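WARN  no MSA supplied for this record, continuing single-sequence
INFO  ligand: adenosine-5'-diphosphate
INFO  echoing inputs
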Amino acid sequence: MTQSSFKARCVSTSETMADQAALETKSVTLAYEQNVIAKDLSVNIPHGKFTVIVGPNGCGKSTLLRSLSRLLVPKSGEILLNGENIHSQSIREVAKKLGLLPQSAIAPDGIKVIDLVSRGRFPHQKWFQPWSEADQTAVELAMQATGVIDFAQLNVDQLSGGQRQRVWVAMALAQETSLLLLDEPTTYLDIAHQIELMDLFQDLNRIQGHTLVAVLHDLNHACRYADHLIMIKSGEIIATGSPNDIITETLIEAVFGLSCLILPDPISNTPLIIPRGRASTAAN
Ligand code: ADP
Ligand code: MG
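INFO  complex generated
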């Protein structure tokens, strides 16, 4: 199977879902018992776009992603998936529409790469049906797209952090959902593998029509790849829109407390954020 057959398969998958609405939260309160992380939060994930969520450590990005994927029930407000309350849909129904790559996912001890990727097929399987050709094809294509097919028979714990991360992405792709939520998908990767994976996500979005939501720490990657950027601080949305429209030195200072210089990225013409840090004092 080739990269192009992977694309052809995903195009047909996304086309059948073309009239589906986006994900949204409507005035949700997200909390862990009494610890309120976000109050009255309304987030819109536009259909067919690559949305990136950024914000300081602990501001609630993973909490928001968990709520968007039905893992965390809001204390108030509602979450709509394709215009329908996500909690009125079963876990299996949601898992056919939406895949989540959690932050710091932990693989079961001793599991092989192919077996972990195969777990992405769970929502498509029925107890009375054996593993199908469609399941096999989805797993192989996902492993090819992420470059992990050569490791198929290795144990996940034998892999480097970067290779392991690509296996998790393969598992999410094998699920064949039109919506993918990715929590810090590039964190353990070297720069070349970060770009390779970000380019893969961009292809999934632009060529195959997947709606993507990624939490990223690298602001320059966020500006380069996002159609729609959401900046969060302390559980509140501070700005949303295209990076070119919203990113300013004042905004970065307000959200991250970081003094910086912003130039146009000569490759992508998106904002390039250069921290001033102590170097600016030394230069003056
Ligand atoms: P981010 O992803 O932006 O770094 P998180 O959403 O993980 O932030 O966390 C937001 C806040 O919620 C933090 O203060 C964190 O300590 C708290 N938190 C996260 N997960 C849990 C949990 N399972 N139980 C209790 N508090 C949590
Ligand atoms: Mg997080």
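Residues 61-62, 103, 183 surround magnesium ion (ligand 2) (CB under 6 Å).
INFO  checksum written, moving to next record
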